[in-house]
Amino acid sequence: MPASHTLLGGKSIIGEPEVVEDTSALPADEVETSDAWLSVKAAATALQSLQASDGSVPDADDHPAAADLVDAIVTAIAELSPRFPGDAEYLAASVVDFTRWQREGFGVPDFYDSLVAFQPQLQRVDGVRHLVVFPMYTQNGSRDRHVEALIVETIWPEFIERLEEEYSNRLFVSLRLVDFTPGYETNSAVLFPETVAMREIPSFTWGAIFQDREAARYRRVVKAAAEITKLELPTAAARMLEDQALTERTFVMWDLIHDRTHMRGDLPFDPFMIKQRMPFFLYSLEELRCDLTAFRECVAIERRLQARVDDGEQVDAAELSMLEHAALVQYAVIFDRIFRFAITGSRVRNYDGVGAQLLFAWLHQRGVLHWTDTALTFDWDEVPDAVVALGDAIDELYWRSIDRPKTAHWLAAYELVRGSLEPHPASAWARGLPLDVLAGAPKGFTDAVLDDEFPLSMFYEALEKKMRTVIASTEGIRASDD
Prior knowledge:
It contains 17 helices and nine strands. Helix 6 crosses helix 10 (317-340) and helix 8 crosses helix 9 (280-310). By secondary structure, it is α+β, with helices and mostly antiparallel strands.
């Protein structure tokens, strides 16, 4: 008797079935080529075109098509589930969430139950893969909570396992993008639980960063920038531009320490400023503080381990890897910030851009970075202490802020930044805020900040024009895009 097969578009094919692929025994490292994954990817992508910004499917005429697409997704998830045994509970909950969303008429989706069941931080083993399907927005990508699907792979080398014993960060997950739906054809390099559509906010237990994407765009941008600025890269830094895996591991080490720095130290009450409206340069200092803490710690790790090697002490393979990557993190922090962060994105409250500009100006004004005869050079022996000094200045600002009113802290932070960066000539903050603003509510302070409070310098204006095409080419980049 002929069999009927339903396609994503709702049409049927009548005829004898072909040999059906048995996916249950296949390893997860082959899943991106499987029919089941391609079905999930195609159905999720098609479903996005029917969804409103909040994730719902508002047009009742679209519900039959949406139902067919959800059927395809849940069927494929069930088929793929045996290949992801560590995610069995999550994938089962995902099927339930999709089915309920369909049954209840495609309103605003609620994937709380499957989100709570997804615990990738419990499987930090190098090479472990996950199938991830949620209605979510993608940071630095789309703000629409559409269904996105990803296959991801954990990056967790042995030396990171050892490093995490000292720099404990149980929420940190380091991933590699294997395949994904269009929401990740963007600059997004993170997977955060708070982006998922859900009825209430749970206690978040993980946050993931795609080190492969960060490494790939670093390599492309730094290679181009070094050529444009005639920068002669140190041998170790040059190796990163030719070795994707080496650069990925370097970014894992950087981000592990960066991520744990948030909410540690002598901090203002809410350094993250997640739910507060503050001048955007406060974000600049917080993100820069975390990067410079990673830099400072890597300087200490490198000096400590190198001293042991020089003294002839025994060091194991993991410690040698730490030594190698600690030096590379220092190059990565400097070059990623001054070459990519400073000129990526718009000039509307670009806090990462300001932090990068500040690092460049700080190093230049302390005589360890030079732009002479249209060539960029560094006094590398002097650079570590100069970078650490900027980190110390931010730490001092934070320590003093504990005894200051909030707006006084804002003013002090502004003075730290303008000590190296020239404000916009029209800046009210630079001229001095009027008494009515100083005596008023914090909103007046924030409203007085220009969208581009610290414009690009002449150096960066020229560099941005030459790098514009390269920066744009990194959107949606994959590790294989060399």
